Amino acid sequence: MFKSIFRLLLCLGHGMLCCQIMIGIWLSGGQADAASEQPNIILIIADDFGPEMGAYGDLNDLTPNLDALAASGAMFLNGHVTAASCSPSRGSMFTGLYPHQHGMFGLSHINGAPPMHDDVPKLPNELKRLGYTTAIVGKTHFQPFDQFDWDYVETNGQKVVYERNVRWMNEKGFGFIDAHKDSGPLFLVMSYVDPHRGGPAYGPGKNQEFPRVVSGLPEVPIPPDATHPIPYLAVDTPAVRSEISDYYAAVQRLDVGVGEFMTGLDQRLVPENTLIVFIGDHGADVTRGKISAYHSATHIPYLVRWTQHISAGQIRDELVSTIDLFPSFLDAAGAETVKPDVRQTGLSFIDLLCGKRSSSEWREYLFTEYLTHVPWHLYPRYTVFDGRFHYILNIWGDERENPLVAREYDEAWLAATAPGFSDLKVAAAYARVEKPPQNELFDLQKDPFSLINLADNPEYAQLLRQAYVRLNEWRLETKDPFLDSEFLADFDQQMQAIHEAYKKR
Ligand SMILES: [Ca+2]
């Protein structure tokens, strides 16, 4: 109770707002009921979505509903996932651990690929312990799924089912809310599939497209010739515009879906008693986005709304990670111990957004990693970002080629690696994707799209050393098993064996 009052008093919305809140507490005799102390928690995840929103300055400006959500609470400018691959990233959301800690190093659906360790903290289980009813609607893509305690998951009796149709998704979410909203606080994950690519399998000649229109949405997809390519592609051709317009059409559909979900949500649950977070699970599926380690790979939209607790219109530049979701949700839910597991290093952004923790007390360095996607994409790399400089350590850099560059379906890749491509700076950046050096260092302030590698520039030698030392400290602190070269060699062999078995199927 002390904690709740303390937090309310410190909320950024001063004056009349705090008066209203205090009156509410007095009217309830100083005993706010359990429901009002424990907000409903709604986590909305978009699949393969970087901050391509109007609110983040995207030139196509196609996200009025997401922008409205951003304006109604806090928008983090420096939100990142832990890894730019679906399963490892999602594992971090639900455990508060980095992939090298939770153990699901790559995609979870390939036979033999490692699942998360049995003993990881599990977000829905912890919230259930605190009285929540839990549900996940849509894409899951993490294992061992059955050890996570969901009260509601849509299945066909054997496995989880979901659709790209955003209205189908919303209908399932509303069904869960309507059935359980009177029985205590809810934890609901809405995990949309857009703007993930869809269609046939990856591979030469099997161009995997972004699905432009699904179930009639969007009603008016952006035309190719009006589309601004995603800026960090740094390539603009008619073919790129055509492909990327399909990505943005999928973003339009996501925006409609989230907008309609928000409308229905606010009709069902009291806004001041409902904490909402919107994130992507990593950047767009284009070169130097998904499945890489660049800033653009892990940078995501990161929005938080909690009406009357978090003042609207906050634009924040702290470095936040998806490992912060776990402690933040437990904090909001009133858990006595915000960090139930010593391995967790996330921070509660509730404290930050309500003024209990100042910006100067927040983290100075943000860490990400990439280990593998499917097992035959193993290429360990680690990054540290201080808000300006982004350092990437490629463990096999200068030694092995990156196995995941054959993006025959990626028009920017095709353009930037074609003979005669004239922008040498951009060509060099794309060449580094295929043959990474051991060290990459970018000044995001001067070079926002990570095109100029400063690692070999003597002027940055000291900064490079410091970044390497800090990164190594983090790997030691978080007990990264890949620090052991024998562990890495054994894992490499295991992954190759899985690949051989997969090819013989
Ligand atoms: Ca994804």
TrEMBL record:
What are the protein's UniProt keywords? Calcium, Hydrolase, Metal-binding
Domain (Sulfatase N-terminal): residue spans on this chain: 39-335
Which SUPFAM superfamilies has this protein been placed in? Alkaline phosphatase-like
CDD domains the record matches: SGSH
- Read off the Gene3D superfamilies from this record: Alkaline Phosphatase, subunit A
Question: Is Transcription among this UniProt entry's keywords?
Answer: no
Family note: Belongs to the sulfatase family.
Its protein name is Sulfatase
Q: Which organism is it from?
A: Thalassobacterium sedimentorum
Upper classification of the source organism reads: Bacteria, Pseudomonadati, Verrucomicrobiota, Opitutia, Puniceicoccales
